[in-house]
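can u do me a favor
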């Protein structure tokens, strides 16, 4: 409705995941690298957890779109399944013909398929979104399939994405927990990242004018959203709708309280969250020592370097977009990434 009003080509704050709009914060860059490491590592098994709306599905879509090579992807996005239904879905996605739909028959058909692909040297990757809804039986089945050995190691690599309780579900199954190479949890964005996220999405959407969201407004949005991207989108979209309906070119932060109940229901403010950690903490991302799961120092260092390189690519993309829109890039100030145009300070 307000695209022409603000000179935009695309809707900047849609609720549905759009991987070309993804803002690669440091933690999102790490999660992206970890998912790719699971795909190309012979023993790849990664669990990515995060709050609702933290960007897990968007990252998975970006990962899938970036795949280039000889592999077979089995993508499960609906997980309210009985055990037999889960096998039916895998059989369908793999294009396997099973003589009957009994679980045992489908199991043997999938095992034969994985062995055949392993013999050909073709990795099979199982990516499951909303994995917190999987039953214990489903998780046991995944553990069993991930344990099948081919000529080059395990016949199937696994990426599980879900809400925070997913880690608890996995840790209750010790044999499954021991197979996981990496646990990573996506937090909400920091206040600084919230501002960059907003500016970046507007830039991709085609905004060329003066900044729409000043620092005071970003601070309010961060406080209400807790840095969760989906909630940020709702609030930003609401503010732009208010300005459009009043035929204003300038957003008014006072509209936030007016629309908050309509957009967030009766939820209280999520409140500020601490800065996102810059390195993996065993307390935050690793299961207890008794589970046998750990992240080796060498692996962590290697993936950290890859994530840093990805952040640099994202920085260059932002600069390229700024050149195309005619907006001069901001001055480098040390650790601040030049992803977005400058922002006016409020009085």
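np, heres the sequence
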């Amino acid at each position: 409705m307000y695209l022409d009003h603000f000179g935009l080509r695309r809707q900047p704050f849609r609720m549905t995941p759009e991987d070309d709009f993804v803002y690669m914060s440091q933690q999102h860059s790490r999660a992206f690298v970890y998912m790719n490491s699971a795909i190309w590592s012979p023993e790849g098994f990664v669990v990515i957890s995060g709050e609702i709306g933290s960007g897990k599905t968007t990252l998975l879509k970006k990962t899938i779109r970036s795949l280039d090579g000889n592999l077979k992807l089995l993508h499960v996005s609906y997980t309210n399944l009985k055990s037999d239904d889960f096998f039916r879905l895998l059989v369908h996605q793999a294009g396997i013909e099973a003589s009957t739909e009994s679980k045992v028959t489908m199991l043997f058909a999938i095992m034969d398929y994985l062995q055949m692909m392993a013999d050909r040297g073709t990795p099979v990757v199982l990516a499951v979104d909303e994995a917190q809804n999987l039953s214990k039986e489903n998780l046991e089945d995944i553990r069993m399939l991930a344990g099948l050995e081919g000529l080059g190691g395990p016949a199937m690599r696994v990426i599980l994405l879900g809400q925070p309780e997913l880690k608890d579900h996995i840790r209750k199954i010790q044999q499954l927990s021991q197979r996981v190479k990496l646990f990573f949890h996506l937090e909400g964005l920091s206040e600084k990242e919230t501002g960059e996220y907003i500016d970046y999405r507007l830039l991709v959407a085609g905004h060329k004018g003066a900044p729409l969201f000043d620092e005071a407004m970003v601070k309010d949005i961060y406080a209400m959203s807790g840095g969760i991207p989906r909630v940020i989108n709702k609030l930003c979209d609401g503010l732009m709708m208010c300005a459009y309906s009043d035929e204003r070119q300038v957003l008014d932060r006072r509209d936030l309280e007016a629309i908050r109940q309509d957009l967030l229901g009766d939820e209280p403010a999520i409140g500020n969250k601490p800065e996102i950690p810059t390195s993996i903490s065993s307390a935050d991302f690793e299961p207890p020592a008794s589970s046998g799961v750990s992240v080796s120092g060498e692996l962590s260092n290697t993936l950290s370097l890859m994530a840093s390189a990805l952040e640099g690519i994202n920085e260059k993309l932002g600069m390229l977009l700024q050149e195309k829109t005619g907006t001069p890039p901001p001055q480098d100030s040390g650790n601040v990434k030049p992803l977005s145009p400058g922002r006016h300070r409020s009085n």
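The first strand starts at residue 45 and ends at 50. hope that helps!!
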